[in-house]
Amino acid sequence: MEVQETIIQFICAMGGCGKTTVAAAYARRMRRVYHGGVFLFCAQSTASFHQSLRNHLARLTANVAAQHASVEESYQCFLSLISDRGNVLLVYNNADDLEVIRRFLPNLEMRCHVIITTRCSKHNLLNNKNRVTQLLPLSEGASLDTLLHFSDKNSSQLTEDELKHAKRLANDPPVQSLPLALEHVGRNIKEKRKSFSVYRNLLASGKETARVKTSNLTDLLRYRGLSHLRVVLQKNGIEKIETLKDVNFFLLAKSIENETGIRPMDVEELRQTKERLESEVALTWDMNINDVFKSSSDARTVMETVSLFFPTDIPLEILGQASFPKVDNKDDRDNRLDAAINRLLAFSLVQENKEKNTLSAHSLVQQAVKEYMGEKRTLFSKLQSLSSYLLTILPQPKDAVMSQVNETRLLELTPHFYCVADTIVAAEAHNDQECWRLLETVRSFALRRGDVSKAKSLRERKLAATPEASTS
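RESULT FIELD:
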């Protein structure tokens, strides 16, 4: 296969869907077609892209000046060096801000393919001229297969009950068919030698998590099955890394470049990519959450509200009123909500269902946002505000039977009422008067609709959290 012109392929999806994995799998499988070379770039920022350029230039030329030039000059030098090499593949990874790479796209006359992985789903670069692949969470069967693979278990050796637990674990919240979460949970089960049923209970109780949160290099390498590299990396000063995927991505770059005849990245170059080390690992969604929250206070408000509801089908009408309770003008409120949602959609933090007029978010993204609010000490005040709003919707215990229309609407919102109530208890916000009233109202509502087990659970958890309540 000869590349006749530049072809740009976008791979779009929320964090954790496997964009980097898909791009890397293609690069590895097709590397012999690209005899001019396979070049991987970290495109998260202009600075990281420039560093990738320097690394590639160091392999392609002895011209030291080119390695220390501006990013634009370095890029032009890089293009001149690959222009006569034949078929070339460029992979721009984590290009969540597509403006960063707009000026670094080869012209059509260049014989190269470009693969761009991004969480951005709304941009004028994503047009008919360029190819776009949208990744979605895995199917139910594929989710189970992925979990079994990483946990090193065979379905034929599992009991019928244990296989049922594995299916629920793979497809229900918080894992919810997300490849990254399936990998984390599967490796954890394998390492700790837990059954699927036991791990489900640990996950439900909060004693385990579907997110790897550690800055320890040994743990991260173990999760990637790369423990044998720990000593050589530590000897070169790499004790902590920013994200779990960084290890895999840069080692992948090293192996691919070695196989294509270009001098591989050495450990010192790997170390230089870790200049912005933090004391705690930044998880796959955290970088986007931080960027969005800093750029738009309304997007932050809406995303925080989304994180407290049930992850699926949050009605936009309810979301707007809950996010902006002090905005009385409906048009103003709707305009602010639309702008905020567009910002969140651009980074694939939420998904919109225009037919149902609802919004959804993955439960692990919600968890990351709630942890962010906990760290910023805003979770409690957000729960207070949301409780006040929901109390205007829910029927009070003393209310008479509602109309059929209102009752049907409330039943549709039931998962959201329950989710907020559970979050109040988990966050120990039940001592607040509004939050306490909401818990009691949700419990009464559960009894009204015949959900005795939920009502009993809320009461038991509430009494356990506040012993003096038993005397009231």
